[in-house]
Design brief:
Number of domains of chain B: 2
Number of strands of chain A: 6
Order of helices and strands of chain B: EEEEEHHHEEEHHH
CATH architecture of the largest domain in chain B: Up-down Bundle
Oligomer: heterodimer
Helix content of chain B: 25-40%
Largest sheet of chain B: 5 strands, mixed, barrel
Distance between the termini of chain A: 70 Å
Strand content of chain B: 15-25%
CATH class of the largest domain in chain B: Mainly Alpha
Shape of chain A: globular
Radius of gyration of chain B: 20 Å
Number of helices of chain A: 8
């Protein structure tokens, strides 16, 4: 079998480590990079280095950021009395896209999972409890609506409620543009249970 | 490849790619199976991903030459959502699913194990906060029985006579209790108090729905857990459950 030159081979190997990228796709990408102009290739390599060097976790909310505290935590226009608790930084991104929420966030870094040995001490619960001392009126728990996310939500609610802070859970129900006929029973049941008054 | 329909309990799920999940199910008709649910995490998916511990009716393409089958549809029959109501309950339910996952190797149907697991989870959802642990050890004893390793607790494993001593010896290796007369000096035994011994017998013989109906003190529960763990690990080679380690971590 004809072999690629050593440096191309190395590039293919590194690229195929990326999620969802097999050897064939990695090869195609490698050849694309091979054809790039030098400055374009540099831009790519610099971008990779930059995320490794510059991006860190915000010391307040644990979202990913280049400046500490992050832009959301620094923003004076945001409502500092509401904290939305999410599992991962990508959840912050998803919620920010809605432009609906103007409060702050707290990224837990996962959910409780006995099967993976992840307990309350492995999540950023202590940090959350410390933040709650600063005039927080409401905590919205926005962990994913599955068993682990639900258990985490209930665990947090039990911790926070005694402090006299309002604890809410994001609603669950029919997706926009969806049809009742095709919704699964669990979602429908939740939609009925979580109905709101007009 | 044939399309089959059965009921199953969700033991575990793993991510597969961006939007797919692989479920490990314990089914009524096929034992433990793994099914791939393509695209189930997408918002457009018509099937909501069933949660851990839930009882689902699944339709899947059963492949003959592969251990990974393809999920066609899944409908949650019972979600056991009460199990997430406390960390303790949630963790013991996770221990049930982990033990099933560890001890059951292949696709072999065993309706008795299926019913036992279902009953255990249902009971765990409703029982008092302090009871899930008792239910778990009772489940583990009954599960070993259905798998063919019933521990002999009613009489001495050697002479068959009733055990009358205050301190009871249990041999994990021989799978039963042994009276003082028959016990050998060079063999390894776990020691149980008489009370723990009697409770262990109850947990083994009573219906799982009744296994949480009598009080058990902490020491006895500890002794019984040692008995069950050493017995199961000797006979099946099972490793210590991650969930038990987790429970120790959160309580200590």
């Amino acid at each position: 079998m004809a072999k690629l030159t050593d440096s191309v081979e190395r590039l293919v190997e590194e690229l195929s480590k990326l999620p969802g990228i097999g050897r064939k796709t990695a090869q195609r990408m490698a050849f694309y990079i091979l054809k790039l102009r030098r400055d374009e290739a540099l831009k790519l390599s610099q971008a990779i280095l930059d995320v490794k060097d510059k991006v860190k976790y915000c010391s307040v909310c644990f979202n990913i950021t280049e400046e500490d505290p992050c832009n959301i935590c620094k923003d004076a226009k945001r409502d500092r009395s509401i904290i939305c608790v999410v599992e991962e930084p990508k959840d912050v991104l998803a919620l920010e896209k809605t432009n609906q929420y103007r409060g702050l966030y707290h990224v837990l870094g996962g959910v409780l999972s006995p099967l993976d040995g992840i307990g309350p001490d492995d999540l950023r619960t202590k940090e959350l409890m410390t933040r709650l001392k600063e005039n927080v009126k409401e905590v919205i728990i926005a962990t994913n609506p599955n068993v682990e996310g639900e258990a985490t939500a209930i665990y947090l609610a039990k911790l926070i409620k005694p402090l006299g802070i309002k604890v809410t859970r994001i609603a669950r129900g029919i997706p926009a543009g969806g049809e009742l006929e095709y919704a699964d029973t669990t979602t429908l049941a939740n939609a009925i249970e979580g109905r709101v008054e007009f | 490849m044939s399309l089959v329909k059965t009921e199953g309990i969700v033991l575990k799920s793993f991510k597969y790619g961006d939007s797919s999940l692989i479920f490990s199910l314990y089914t009524r008709d096929f034992g433990k199976v793994k099914v791939l649910a393509k695209g189930i995490k997408r918002a457009k998916s018509r099937t909501a991903p069933p949660g851990t511990f839930s009882l689902v009716e699944v339709v899947f393409y059963k492949r003959e030459r592969s251990e990974l089958h393809l999920l066609s549809s899944a409908e949650t029959l019972k979600s056991f959502s009460g199990l997430s109501k406390s960390l303790n309950r949630f963790s013991w339910a996770a221990a049930v699913s982990e033990l099933l996952d560890q001890l059951i190797k292949g696709e072999e149907s065993n309706p008795r194990i299926f019913n036992l697991s279902l009953k255990t989870l249902s009971r765990m959802e409703l029982t008092d906060e302090s009871n899930p642990e008792k239910l778990f050890w009772s489940f583990a004893l009954k599960l070993s029985t259905h798998l063919g390793y019933k521990p002999k607790l009613d009489a001495c494993i050697n002479c068959g006579k009733e055990i009358k001593e205050e301190e009871v010896f249990f041999s994990p290796e021989r799978g039963g209790v042994i009276c003082k007369k028959c016990a050998k000096e060079d063999e390894y035994y776990l020691k149980l108090s008489r009370e723990s011994y009697l409770i262990a017998r109850k947990l083994l013989s009573l219906d799982i729905n009744k296994a949480d109906k009598f009080p058990v003190d902490k020491e006895s529960l500890e002794e019984i857990s040692e008995l069950v763990k050493s017995f199961i690990s000797y006979h099946t080679g099972a490793k210590e459950l991650k969930t038990l380690e987790f429970l120790r971590k959160i309580s200590g």
